[in-house]
Design a protein that fits this description.
alpha+beta, Naphthalene 1,2-dioxygenase Alpha Subunit, Chain A, domain 1, six-stranded antiparallel beta sheet, 5 helices, about 15% helix, binds FE2/S2 (inorganic) cluster, binds cobalt (II) ion
Length: about 350
Amino acid sequence: MLVTQQPVLKRFWYPVMPMEQLSSDRPQSFQLLGQAIALWLDEAGHPVAVADRCCHRSAQLSKGVIIDGCLRCPYHGWSFDRDGTCVNVPQLAADQKIPASYQVPAFKSAARYGYVWVCLHDEPLLPIPYIPEADDAANRLIPQFYEPWQCSGLRLMENSFDNAHFSFVHAASFGNQQQPEPASAELSTLEYGLQLRATIPVVNPPMQQKNLNIPQENTFRYALSTWYMPFCRTLKITYPNGLMHLIFTAATPVSDRVSQIVQFCIRNDTEAEAKAADIIAFDRQVTGEDKAVLETTDWDTPLEISAEQHMLSDQPGIIMRRKLAALLKAHGEVEQRSPFANTFQVRELGDRHTP
Ligand code: FES
Ligand code: CO
């Protein structure tokens, strides 16, 4: 599926940037589903997202500056407000009216969980995923990763629900090589997602013994994974001692082959019990192990079930494909594929497929 060519994917919210990277004097740029956007904070401190292209001579607006909450184009100084309406044209005389057509597209934006979320469509199909644990003042939220990966969102989503990869991909961190059989899991489908419950035996290396306050070399994860269509998931892990480690991960689609990984975790312990830096370090190792493999997979990930081979533990990934295919169909779309999809995968155009 080429995500930039499926318009219905514009009807979801995606986390695009940590709020702390936004300012009220310099705009930032991001690319969401191939759409370049300029981001900043208005005078009330709310995030703003508009198309990153001036309607005058197409200059990149995010190279401009913010003045009084409005974005001023670097080329001729036209200014745009949070609705994308041009509110100042320095070349016009004071009594001349600004034409209503001086307008750039503005997008829905919201701050949640410390990130700016953007929806490219006026009518999102779903709200921003609700994570009740984030509202509990007794818990702490730790931002973890914000980085581009060369893989599709679907690959990362199914990886999160894949109980068969731990013993191989995560052999150096928590994977139990003595138990390669996937833990049995209980699967339930949601209207726009799915949930998986599993009890997973894991190795508990020294770094984790400290992070979890579990001194044993082996332990269990009671894991509840939730997929929020199309590219967000939570993994709520509870350990036998009651510690909760809830991971939120989004694979925000930048382009057909790049996803921006946005990950934070929520814990019910304190900094005195486990340092945030140590928690990030362990999850960095695990996440890096997944990244190394996922970046070798085909980014034009097929929804068609028969295009790849499967085993029993792939059920969540199969359901994701079916649900995404049904979403496209319900909105009158057919799956768009790369012209090279059925021959061999192209990582970078001009790299693997050129002679
Ligand atoms: Fe933006 Fe001219 S290109 S003001
Ligand atoms: Co993994």
